[in-house]
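User: quick one - fold this with adenosine-5'-triphosphate bound?
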Amino acid sequence: MYDSIISVAELTVELGGNPVLRGLGLTVAAGEIVAVVGPNGSGKSTLLRCLAGLQPATFGEVRVFGEPPVDDGPFWRRVALLGDEPAWYPGLTTREHLELMAAVHPRTRMTVEAALEVFALVERADAAPLNLSTGQRQRLSLAAALLRPSTLLLLDEPERGLDAAFRGRLADLLDAYADEGGTVVMATHDQGLAARAREVSPTGVTA
Ligand SMILES: Nc1ncnc2c1ncn2[C@@H]1O[C@H](COP(=O)(O)OP(=O)(O)OP(=O)(O)O)[C@@H](O)[C@H]1O
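Assistant: Sure. Structure tokens for the protein plus adenosine-5'-triphosphate:
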């Protein structure tokens, strides 16, 4: 067993010969919501990629569920990642993208119809994602991440494109996820989202 969902020690990452993260330490317990905050280029996305097993450490240790994260099936059954906009399937509607997610994960956290309601996509359910607005597409990405079961949610700027009202709604949805025992780590520039989370900095200096 493991004491923390995430434990990072002395994490250093160099990209293109430049240090991006330097000796970072971070411990996250189950049920916590952590906001990684800092200016552009401070290494927030790099930290998330390390936690997702997508970026190797140059030095130091990253453990997720007690083990170094690996980009494989068993890991991704427990971890949902919201990063850059995903590739949308041509010919499939918004609803069908969610149905696809539900087909792969038979025990979803909510039904497709509920997800369309929660993420305010009912009126656009039959539209192709590329015909949605930027914010609607972000809500679809979030719906897909929160529809499927997971124990750790890694979100890179989940507020991207969302209006103020939905940002508040998103904070409520993340609280509900954590109340179920899930853990959230998000990189964010949104002060409202960060204020409702434990704020950490990729430079190691906590706000
Ligand atoms: N593939 C790469 N090769 C070299 N340098 C990179 C690479 N990817 C990112 N960087 C650099 O690493 C630093 C950290 O980038 P990162 O994307 O983690 O920052 P961030 O805090 O998420 O920024 P933002 O707030 O703009 O999203 C930046 O200076 C960036 O230019």
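One thing worth noting: The first strand starts at residue 6 and ends at 15.
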